[in-house]
């Protein structure tokens, strides 16, 4: 029986794969092709994929949302890698934030944090 991987394991493997594609042969790797086009193109791709995920989230098709969610996370990781940021860096930031309520964090901002989400 195949076990469902933990998000930690899946993201760590993705991080390592994407790092290994920096400077790799673009002919055989989509990631290498994207990275070769530069951070701006990677960011544009991430934006497109994010919009596709938004559409599926609004539609409410669970399977399509899982698929688009995977596209978004992969393209986020590529966009980050293009600026030498890893998923491990982001995980460290998320870990730092654990236990801090978003409401409490907003209240510490000099501008008072603005309006709550509508
Ligand atoms: N997770 C992904 C992953 N998700 C999406 N993609 C590719 O991203 C591309 C998205 O291209 P498009 O925008 O044209 O696709 P699309 O959004 O479906 O297109 P439309 O809906 O607009 O038609 C496709 O070629 C997908 O295959 C991915 N390519 C690679 N990975 C991972 O990266 C690893 C290394 O891949 P390579 O770098 O290709 O070896 C793979 O083993 C995977 O683990």
UniProtKB/TrEMBL annotation:
<dbReference type="GO" id="GO:0005737">
    <property type="term" value="C:cytoplasm"/>
</dbReference>
<dbReference type="GO" id="GO:0000105">
    <property type="term" value="P:L-histidine biosynthetic process"/>
</dbReference>
<dbReference type="InterPro" id="IPR008179">
    <property type="entry name" value="HisE"/>
</dbReference>
<dbReference type="InterPro" id="IPR021130">
    <property type="entry name" value="PRib-ATP_PPHydrolase-like"/>
</dbReference>
<keyword id="KW-0963">Cytoplasm</keyword>
<dbReference type="Pfam" id="PF01503">
    <property type="entry name" value="PRA-PH"/>
</dbReference>
<feature type="region of interest" description="Disordered">
    <location>
        <begin position="96"/>
        <end position="118"/>
    </location>
</feature>
<dbReference type="GO" id="GO:0004636">
    <property type="term" value="F:phosphoribosyl-ATP diphosphatase activity"/>
</dbReference>
<keyword id="KW-0028">Amino-acid biosynthesis</keyword>
<comment type="similarity">
    <text>Belongs to the PRA-PH family.</text>
</comment>
<keyword id="KW-0368">Histidine biosynthesis</keyword>
<keyword id="KW-0378">Hydrolase</keyword>
<dbReference type="GO" id="GO:0005524">
    <property type="term" value="F:ATP binding"/>
</dbReference>
<comment type="pathway">
    <text>Amino-acid biosynthesis; L-histidine biosynthesis; L-histidine from 5-phospho-alpha-D-ribose 1-diphosphate: step 2/9.</text>
</comment>
<keyword id="KW-0067">ATP-binding</keyword>
<keyword id="KW-0547">Nucleotide-binding</keyword>
<protein>
    <recommendedName>
        <fullName>Phosphoribosyl-ATP pyrophosphatase</fullName>
        <ecNumber>3.6.1.31</ecNumber>
    </recommendedName>
</protein>
């Amino acid at each position: 029986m195949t076990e469902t991987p933990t998000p930690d394991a899946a993201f760590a493997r993705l991080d390592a794969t994407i790092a290994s594609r920096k400077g790799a042969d673009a002919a055989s790797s989509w990631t290498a092709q994207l990275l070769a086009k530069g951070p701006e193109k990677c960011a544009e791709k991430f934006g497109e994929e994010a919009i596709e995920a938004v559409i599926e989230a609004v539609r409410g098709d669970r399977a399509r949302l899982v698929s688009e969610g995977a596209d978004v996370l992969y393209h986020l990781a590529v966009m980050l890698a293009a600026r030498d940021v890893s998923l491990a860096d982001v995980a460290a930031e998320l870990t730092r934030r654990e236990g801090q309520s978003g409401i409490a964090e907003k209240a510490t901002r000099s501008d008072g944090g603005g309006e709550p989400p509508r």
